[in-house]
Every structure is written in structure tokens, then in C-alpha cells.
User: Which sequence fits this backbone?
């Protein structure tokens, strides 16, 4: 087996506690890591005990991060920190010298702490600052109930270091427990064992017994309540949302069963979802035991719940078997999209699965077009050294990764593919893997074993999409295209053919408008189908994009676009619309909206839009 980095020193043996009471000894060799200052082959954290106070008035988290460490004879341990105020550091209870190195705009600073050869614990007293990138503090007006403030964290890719000093590399897994003090009327939840009721004193205790990388440590605080779906699934949401959220996600247990049926037991005990306020920057974030989700998927008809299947799939690909570095991000996301679509197929049939796959294929083609001047960024294996790993979080990892696995499945057959994936998850459970190791494993355990030749290297290491890519077909979408063409040809639309359409079919219809569609035709479609007033966020988003691109201003669509961008902070939606303003030569209109909307966005969304619009705060 190839290794990116051969250790000159003997490797560190650390104890990792799993769900079983017995402890098992795991040998870890850490490969070179482009996005962390930590030197885990010298000294590594193994367990975090976090004790913090959350002050909403000052918008500060302060307290102490206590770590158990494994030391390989080093005289210092290096953590990652960004925009933190470090007050004091102790080693085994005694004050110890520390320094913060030079600031790198992506990585932050190395926090270098002096230790002895036999140091077992370090304790860092610190507070967050106004510049923190992980935390989004929301005032009451930015929530659903509008009576209490809210706070959530977003750790992926390298933001956990902006609210906890930590060794922030996906290769380093730790267990954690935490004590979090919040205002008495609010509830705190984490990616851990969670409370189901509010604590009268506002003090919450958490325990995460499965080892996880730092980017999966997550915290949300708000006036939220819990409602169970089954004995291991349920939802957290603000009071006014709880019933709707519970109904929307009522298939959660069925999804867990379908997933287990495919790739083995769910290893994280509990699978809950918290629906956050609309500024949450992603569709969902797979924080273990507690997925964080955008309210934009609450459509009232379960039509956008493939998001739940996606985040659930991450319980295997990503959380159980983690990409070693962000250059291997496709191992997290490509596998997860593949698994998501398999879960959706198991629950709702092949047609729905193929519609999702085809939407992804169109996203991929759009991304390839957008990256046509940067072909290296269209490889599955990325090189993000010296860059923000966020640059690699696009459709290539997700949809090209999916297409690779789907093409492979069609080549080897589903039965062999599933047996292979099941064994892969089992072998690498609670550890990390990189692209090279995966490729070796694939060759040995699937291709050579069955005497199958496949252009794996071209898929992984070459730009673009290879010629043997699976062709995905959907009868439903073919019918949508026919209906659209008939409208373009005859200027008339037959509403009987569209009566039973799912939101995915509507999305496909709108996204495929010809480039020369006129504002008049759009007006006609809006009159017939009320797109501007749609309550499905996905349909709204693609309709607004077309409205901007095609100069359609009717039916108060401009006001709706402005309202949408001032409320929703989901990065995919927001960047799609601002990019449309840019491409339509209406960047000034985009900037006018952005100036007020930006305050509602989490830093990961704001950073992307700043760059897109050339905006300087
Ligand atoms: Zn994902």
C-alpha cells in the first residue's frame, strides 16, 4: 500500500474509545497535511473536555479547552487557532509558555505550547473575538419565532479553529465532552448526546464517545424544542416550525433502515436533525448524531428531503470513513451523493433517483463550463495547498464523484459494487483514507479480483469527464423537455401534461429554458404557473435565476428576488442568483441587494459572494 509520507520516527499508539466499553489500540501514521499547523506525529490530542460560557450580549464564547494528549517525546505541541484570544495555557495543571505564530489568511496561526515528555494534559483558557468565522450570531428578527437570539457553528472545512483552539485536520480524531452555559430560556445542542428538554439553569452537558475530526464538532443554541420520529430519530426546531419539520422529515427512520440495508449498521446511535434559521449557509451539514439543516428544504410535500438522505449517507462516507485531507474531498462527497441516490431509489423508486442524478449531471456540466479556464480544478483529486479548502467544495467532488461511482457500478454490476462498498466502509471505520489508498483498495478488492479493467486513473487524476461516463436517462425529464419544446414552438402550453409534475420536473423545465427566451414568454409562463409566488425554494431559485438572466421584471419578481436574497443565506442559492446578476451585466443591481443582505449571511457565504462581486467590506 502506498503512503504519502513515511515516518522516520516510530508511530504513536493512542487509545481510542468506541461505542463498546473495551478500548482498542489503534496505530495512526499521519500524512502531510496542507491545511493545519499541527504536527501530530510528534504530539497529538486524543480527547477534548470543553467548558465554555456563551454570552449573547457580548457575542463571545469563553472558557477552557482541556485536552488529553499523546506525546511522542516532543517538547511542544502545536494547535491551530484563528482569531482567538488565548489567555493562559497549562500543562498538567501548571502554567506553561506558549506562542502564537504568524497569521496566514486561510490557516490562522499555529499555537505552540511547551510540554514535557510525560505531559498528559493541556488546558487552554481563551475567548472568541468578533472576527470568528465559524459562529453566526443571529438576533431575534433573524429567527422563525422572532423572540429570542440564536447561535450556530459551521466547522467544515477549517473553521472550528476560529471558536476552539484545536488540531484541525480531518486525520486527527478525538472524542469529546462539553459543558456549555447559555441564557436560561435557550437550549444548547451539539454533535453529541443531546438533551431533549431545556435545562432550568441553562447549563448543558454533552458527551461524544465516537472519535470524530474537529470539523464535525458543532454547537447550536436557540429557543428550540425536540420531537421524536422513532426511538433513534427526531427533529429539533423553533416552536413555530416544529410541526412542519416533523411532518416533512417523517421518513427519517425508513431512510436509516434503507441505508443500513445497503452498507451496514448505523454506528452513531442517534440520528436527529435541527432545522436552523434561513441564514444557515448550506443545505445541510452532517454533524454526527445531529445534522444541521436549512429551512429552505421544508417544502410541505417532502419533495426536497433527498437532503436528509445525503446527510444520513455521510454517517458512513465522511463521518465514519473520512477524507484524509481536503484534497481528497471527493471521497466524502462523491460517495455520499452515490449513497444518497441509492437511498432515494430504495425508498421512492428508480425514476426519482434518476431525476436527482440528471439534475446533478446538469450541475456538473455547468461547473465544468465555469471552470473551463482552471482544468486542474476539475480533477477529483485536488491540489488545494496554499488555498482555502473551500475552493474545492463544488460540483466536481459531488457530481463527478457520483458519476465515477455510477459508471463503475454499471461496469462491475450492482451486487459486486455493494459488497465492495460495504467492505470498504467496514475496513476504514472511524479512520481516514486518501485517494491513493482508495485507488489501491479498489484495484485489489474489486477490479483485479474480478478481472475487470476500468479507467480509474483517468477519472481521478485527469480533468473533465471521461468518455465512458454512464448515460443517465429519465422518462419524466424527457417528457418535460417535450412540453417545453412544444411551448417554444406553438406559444401554447398544455396544462394537463404538467398537472402531476413533481418539483424536480418543474426545476428541470425552468432550468432548460432556451437562451433566447423572451420576457414576454416568461410572463406567459408566470401567468400560467405562478412561478414568482412559488413556495418551493428550489423552484423559486431557478425561476429567479432565469428572470435575472432574461430581463423579466413582471409580477413583482424583482421585489421577490430581493426579499429572497435578504432572507435566505444558503450559499448555493445565493451565489447562483448573484452570479446571474453578474452574467446579465446587472452587477449594480446585485450589489444594491447585497449591501443590505450581507449582514444576514454566514462568513462562508459572504466570503464567496464578496469574491464573486468584487465586494470589499
Ligand atoms: Zn455532503
Assistant:
Amino acid at each position: 500500500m502506498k503512503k504519502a509520507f513515511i515516518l522516520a520516527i516510530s508511530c504513536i499508539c493512542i487509545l481510542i474509545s468506541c461505542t463498546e466499553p473495551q478500548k482498542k489500540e489503534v496505530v495512526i501514521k499521519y500524512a502531510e497535511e496542507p491545511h493545519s499547523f499541527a504536527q501530530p506525529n510528534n504530539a497529538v490530542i486524543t480527547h477534548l473536555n470543553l467548558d465554555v460560557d456563551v454570552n449573547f450580549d457580548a457575542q463571545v464564547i469563553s472558557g477552557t479547552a482541556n485536552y488529553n494528549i499523546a506525546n511522542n517525546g516532543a517538547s511542544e505541541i502545536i494547535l491551530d487557532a484563528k482569531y482567538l484570544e488565548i489567555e493562559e495555557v497549562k500543562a498538567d495543571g501548571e502554567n506553561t509558555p506558549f506562542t502564537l505564530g504568524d497569521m496566514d489568511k486561510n490557516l490562522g496561526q499555529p499555537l505552540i505550547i511547551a510540554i514535557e515528555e510525560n505531559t498528559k494534559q493541556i488546558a487552554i483558557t481563551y475567548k472568541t473575538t468578533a472576527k470568528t468565522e465559524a459562529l453566526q450570531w443571529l438576533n431575534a428578527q433573524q429567527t422563525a419565532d422572532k423572540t429570542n437570539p440564536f447561535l450556530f457553528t459551521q466547522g467544515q472545512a477549517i473553521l472550528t479553529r476560529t471558536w476552539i483552539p484545536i488540531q484541525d485536520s480531518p486525520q486527527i480524531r478525538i472524542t469529546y465532552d462539553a459543558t456549555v452555559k447559555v441564557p436560561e430560556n435557550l437550549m444548547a445542542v451539539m454533535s453529541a448526546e443531546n438533551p431533549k428538554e431545556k435545562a432550568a439553569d441553562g447549563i448543558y452537558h454533552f458527551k461524544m464517545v465516537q472519535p470524530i475530526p474537529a470539523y464535525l464538532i458543532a454547537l447550536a443554541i436557540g429557543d428550540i424544542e425536540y420531537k421524536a420520529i422513532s426511538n433513534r430519530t427526531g427533529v429539533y426546531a423553533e416552536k413555530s416550525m416544529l410541526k412542519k419539520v416533523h411532518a416533512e422529515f417523517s421518513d427519517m427512520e425508513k431512510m436509516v433502515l434503507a441505508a443500513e440495508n445497503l452498507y451496514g449498521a448505523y454506528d452513531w446511535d442517534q440520528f436527529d436533525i435541527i432545522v436552523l434559521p434561513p441564514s444557515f449557509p448550506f443545505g445541510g451539514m452532517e454533524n454526527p448524531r445531529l445534522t444541521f439543516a436549512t429551512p429552505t428544504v421544508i417544502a410541505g410535500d417532502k419533495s426536497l428531503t433527498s437532503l436528509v438522505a445525503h446527510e444520513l449517507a455521510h454517517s458512513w462516507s465522511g463521518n465514519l470513513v473520512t477524507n484524509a485531507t481536503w484534497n481528497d474531498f471527493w471521497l466524502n462527497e462523491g460517495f455520499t451523493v452515490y449513497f444518497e441516490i441509492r437511498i432515494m431509489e430504495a425508498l421512492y423508486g428508480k425514476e426519482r433517483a434518476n431525476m436527482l442524478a440528471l439534475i446533478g449531471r446538469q450541475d456538473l456540466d455547468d461547473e465544468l463550463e465555469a471552470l473551463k479556464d482552471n482544468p486542474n480544478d476539475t480533477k477529483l483529486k485536488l491540489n488545494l495547498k496554499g488555498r482555502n479548502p473551500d475552493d474545492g467544495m463544488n460540483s466536481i467532488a459531488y457530481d463527478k464523484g457520483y458519476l465515477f461511482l455510477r459508471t463503475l457500478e454499471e461496469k462491475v454490476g450492482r451486487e459486486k459494487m455493494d459488497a465492495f462498498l460495504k467492505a470498504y466502509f467496514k475496513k476504514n471505520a472511524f479512520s481516514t483514507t486518501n485517494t491513493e489508498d482508495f485507488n489501491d483498495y479498489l484495484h485489489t478488492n474489486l477490479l483485479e479480483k474480478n478481472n475487470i479493467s476500468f479507467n480509474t486513473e483517468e477519472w481521478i487524476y485527469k480533468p473533465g469527464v471521461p468518455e465512458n461516463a454512464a448515460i443517465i436517462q429519465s422518462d419524466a425529464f424527457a417528457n418535460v423537455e417535450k412540453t417545453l419544446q412544444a411551448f417554444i414552438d406553438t406559444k401554447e402550453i398544455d396544462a394537463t401534461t404538467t398537472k402531476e409534475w413533481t418539483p424536480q420536473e418543474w426545476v428541470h423545465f425552468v432550468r432548460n429554458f432556451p437562451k433566447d427566451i423572451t420576457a414576454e414568454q416568461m410572463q406567459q409562463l408566470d401567468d400560467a404557473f405562478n412561478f414568482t409566488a412559488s413556495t418551493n425554494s428550489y423552484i423559486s431559485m431557478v425561476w429567479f435565476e432565469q428572470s435575472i438572466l432574461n430581463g423579466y421584471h413582471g409580477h413583482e419578481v424583482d421585489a421577490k428576488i430581493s426579499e429572497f436574497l435578504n432572507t435566505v443565506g444558503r450559499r448555493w442559492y445565493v451565489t447562483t442568483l448573484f452570479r446571474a446578476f453578474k452574467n446579465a451585466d446587472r452587477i449594480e443591481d446585485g450589489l444594491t441587494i447585497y449591501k443590505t443582505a450581507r449582514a444576514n449571511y454566514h462568513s462562508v457565504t459572504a466570503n464567496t459572494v464578496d469574491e464573486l462581486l468584487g465586494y470589499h467590506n
